[in-house]
Amino acid sequence: MSKKLDQAFQNALNLGCQCKCGQQFVREGNSLLCPNGHRIDGNKKGYFNFLSKPVSDAYTARLFEARSHILNQGFFDGILAFLLPEIREDAKILDCGTGDGYFLRSILSQIPGSSGAGIDLSRYAIEQAADLSALWCVADLRSLPFPDHLFDVILDILSPADYREFRRVLAPSGKLIKVIPGREHLREIREARKLSPVHESLSEEHLAKEARILRREERLKTFSINETEWQNFISMTPLNQDLTEDEQRELAMHPSPTITVHFVLITAAL
Ligand SMILES: [Zn+2]
């Protein structure tokens, strides 16, 4: 039994991981088993895969690797600075679309007594995330493998939302923290590609219909970057998912000396 898998079971059972049929899982050997006989096998890399069939994975390992470099170099730490004061001690946190787990891991290491789960549709992402700090799951946010009203905080950072499911797993006093790209986000890449600026105002309007907004901030910062960092930004942004590898390489060969990050950060009650 790997230490990672052992810890994954402990994290899963402490959070009360739930089958899609609504029953609690119990541990049986290397599997989570529900009373109706559904079974999720633990992965020796230290995560669980709750998808009944694999999804076509548009986001590749290369994308998550590039994203991980960018996060670890602190380019998105404006998000972290917003998140930390919003989360109290002992909070149970769900990070939807966790990617390589950077934000959840950073929070858990800084907020005493906090615990949490990170889910992502991408197996590549969760394989990079899986460590001992949290419960890591390949799962669909439209069918969260958790019991009702379990979490104090849901993080939805640059990721889609399912408010019905969020409302189900969030405690009545809990809050959602949503981060969406602002109008100036990655302006240099849009300019290099002659794309028009897009503020995801629709996601914000949708959120305002579903939730009560408690706090809203925008953070914008322009960084000087080198060629490697430019390449990482090119590789990690979903903006460039429509480009072929050759087209991405071409774009990477004309580096911008700066990159702008711009986020809209919202805390809301559901
Ligand atoms: Zn079941």
Spell out the key features of this protein.
270 residues, Rossmann fold, 11-stranded mixed beta sheet, 27% strand, globular, binds zinc ion
Topology:
Blueprint: H1 3-15, E1 26-28, E2 31-33, E3 39-43, E4 47-49, H2 61-72, H3 77-83, E5 92-96, H4 102-110, E6 115-120, H5 123-129, E7 135-138, E8 151-157, H6 163-169, E9 170-181, H7 187-192, H8 201-210, E10 212-224, H9 227-236, H10 245-252, E11 258-269
Parallel strand pairs: 4-7, 5-6, 5-8, 6-7, 8-9
Antiparallel strand pairs: 1-2, 2-3, 3-4, 9-11, 10-11
Helix pairs in contact: 2-9, 9-10
Bound molecules: zinc ion.
Structure summarized in a few sentences:
The protein is an alpha/beta fold and 270 residues long.
Describe the 3D structure.
It is a single chain. The chain has 270 residues and is an alpha/beta fold. Helix 9 (227-236) packs antiparallel against helix 10 (245-252). A hairpin with a 2-residue loop joins strand 1 (26-28) and strand 2 (31-33). It is globular. It has a single domain (3-269), classed as Rossmann fold, CATH 3.40.50.150. An eleven-stranded mixed sheet has the order 1-2-3-4-7-6-5-8-9-11-10. It has helices spanning 3-15, 61-72, 77-83, 102-110, 123-129, 163-169, 187-192, 201-210, 227-236, 245-252; strands at residues 26-28, 31-33, 39-43, 47-49, 92-96, 115-120, 135-138, 151-157, 170-181, 212-224, 258-269. Zinc ion binds at residues 19, 21, 23, 34, 36, 38.
Rg calculated over all Cα atoms: 19 Å
- What is the top-level CATH class? Alpha Beta
Strand order of the largest sheet: 1-2-3-4-7-6-5-8-9-11-10
What hetero molecules are in the model?
Answer: zinc ion
* Cα separation of the termini: 40 Å
- List the secondary-structure elements in sequence, H or E: HEEEEHHEHEHEEHEHHEHHE
Q: How much strand content do the residues show? A: 25-35%
Q: Per CATH, which architecture?
A: 3-Layer(aba) Sandwich
Question: Level of helix content?
Answer: 25-40%
Named CATH topology: Rossmann fold
Q: Give the assembly state of these chains.
A: single chain
Give the domain tally. 1
Largest sheet, if any? 11 strands, mixed
Structural class label:
alpha/beta
